[in-house]
Amino acid sequence: MQNANAKKFRSELKEYMDAAVSEPVRINRRDGQGFILMSEQLYDGFRNEVLSLQRRLLGMSEIVDGRTKPFVRGEDRTTRFKKK
Predict the structure, then answer these.
(1) CA–CA separation, 7 and 72 (whole Å)
(2) pLDDT confidence of residue 51
(3) Are strands 34-37 and 25-28 parallel, antiparallel or unpaired?
(4) How many CB atoms lie within 10 A of CB 52?
(5) In a domain, 54, yes or no
(6) 74 located within any domain
(7) How many structural domains does the chain have?
(8) Which of 8, 48, 62, 82 could form a disulfide with 67 if both were Cys (CB 3.0 to 4.6 A apart)?
(9) pLDDT 10s per residue in the chain (84 long)?
């Protein structure tokens, strides 16, 4: 991961945006705050992964809490999604 301070980042914005296509770039302020510049594609990948993990965690919590139905062979399991 490349590092840059805010002043250098502003002066070389195009170069850092080009670099962010292949890897994230860390931008540090004098006060210690840090920011990450990354491609939209990488951001979307992270976001989708987080959403997937949240859904998986929700499903696991339903299992732990006993809020599941037993599987019955031949039963139509899609009825809850169909409009009435």
Answers:
(1) 64
(2) 97
(3) antiparallel
(4) 10
(5) yes
(6) no
(7) 1
(8) 62
(9) 999 999 999 999 999 999 999 999 999 999 999 999 999 999 999 999 999 999 999 999 998 998 888 878 888 878 777 776
Closest residue by Cα to residue 35 from 2, 61, 74: 2
Six token digits for residue 79: 């009825």
pLDDT value of position 74: 81
Q: Tell me, what DSSP letter sits at residue 60?
A: H
- Is 69 inside a domain boundary? no
Q: Are 37 and 55 a contacting pair, CB within 8 Å?
A: no
Positive or negative, the Cα torsion across 52, 58, 64, 68? negative
Confidence at residue 34, expressed as pLDDT on a 0 to 100 scale: 97
Is 80 inside a domain boundary? no
CA dihedral in degrees (54, 34, 31, 9; nearest 10)? -150
